[in-house]
Amino acid sequence: MTRTKILAVLLALSMFGAVTVQGAALPGVTAQQEAPDGQQSGLVVESITAPDSAEPGSTVTVVAEVSNPGSARTTQEVEFRLGGDVVDRTLVTLAGGENATVRFEADTEDLDPGEYRHGVYTGANSQTATLVLSESFEIADFDAPESVEAGELVTVDVELENPNDFETTQNVSFWFDGSRVASEAITIDDGDDEDVTFNLSSEGVAPGTYEHGVFTRDEGELAELEVTEPGPTDASVAFEDQESDGTTVTVDQLVIPSDGYVTIHDDSLLEGNVVGSVIGVSEYLEEGTYENVTVTLYDVEGADFNETELTESGTLIAMPHNETTGDETYDFVASNGTDDGPFTVGGQPVTDDATVTVAGANETADNETEAPPADNETAANETADNETAAPTASVALDDQTSDGTSVTVTDVSVSEGGYVVIHDSGLLDGDAVGSVVGVSEYLEPGEYDELTIELFDVPGATFDQTELTENQTLIAMPHLEDSGNETYDFVTSGGSADAPYVDDEGAVTDAGNVTVAANETAG
């Protein structure tokens, strides 16, 4: 049986303008009619519109745009062919300059799955296309978010399966709020599957509930998406002076732009002891704004304490931290500062300090009297000569070119001796320990010029590289020798030993831009 006999065509013609349509094919009619002036004229198929694929047994609609580019009124056969065979024809009459839409509906019930070439022809030209009869791709899995903040990316993942026994290509589209916003031609091998991801920015989408989904040719999955008001973009914290029983403190206000925690540090943070200064952490908090967050002290994952409560009044510091590992457990201390680091604004950790008074501590009984000074001296007679001067330091790290294995500190002075430490930019994210990439030899008290420091050779630190490979900003920081062993112990102690020199503004530092020689571009 030929394809001409297999394919049944239901013909419907819709014409625009002054067009004559003859509804049945008339064998023997000449393909074109002679114009009054003796010139021949023919109809032209301008375009056809047809699906790329369809389900076997379905009715396929093929629409052709036919025009008469000549000046004379012309009658001509328009043929619909499948695989080269004529399956139907009709006569179309058009005046000069007119056009018409011709519509064919093909019943594919008796056709086997596969690829078919079809087209619409006149005596002058043709337009053809390919039709694949196949089963639709199936949606095996559909993963879509239930809500996003306005401005965030909407990501929808689908797993598609090809149920056909041959490779085929079909269009898969993503719809949002009644409109198709993306479409992609997907090719899948016979019996295979394919993962497809659609991304849509919700920038400019008003908060509300929307319907969205993914459609294959014949299947679809729909879901509801709630677009919410955008949350805060920066973290902030307010920590007011307060009285405590020694076991908890209260953070008055907290804003975190993503999930995280608020931690409490003692004042050793001001000396650069970022990890060892953590004495309290809140429960896991979802992104948002909070008031009166209670933080329990001396119960921190990965930390060991010699006390269970505050015994003295003093300054504590609140610092919001980000949940970076996804385990909803505060890992900053346990990871030695590499995970769940602090939120930053302008490259600096977000903090606020408060004076915490411990009830019952540091109080003097009403009936107590101070013992008189020894040798009849009074406090008023004490002189500054008996006071111990605070350690001081200065450092300068100029912009420079390096071979990647060392840097040169321009000048440094250390009043009590110690080291010059080189940190990478992780220091600006609060990673005081993990950011150490270089350290000098032990320095006696004094001043030093053009001090070379080897990189990636630090006691207690492990590195994935042996030299700098990218241009970057490094930070020089003088550290004290406070353990007496003339060995740099800051990293191995988790930041509790050989702390940085500090002044009124915090740790003494200077930053310089380091260009790796291999990355220089000739001028």
Automatic annotation (TrEMBL):
Q: Which residues form the DUF7282 domain?
A: 235-357, 393-515
Compositionally skewed regions (Low complexity) per UniProt: 373-390
Domain named CARDB: residues: 43-118
Locate the coiled-coil region(s) and give their ranges: none
State the residue spans of region: Disordered: 363-390
What protein am I looking at? CARDB domain-containing protein
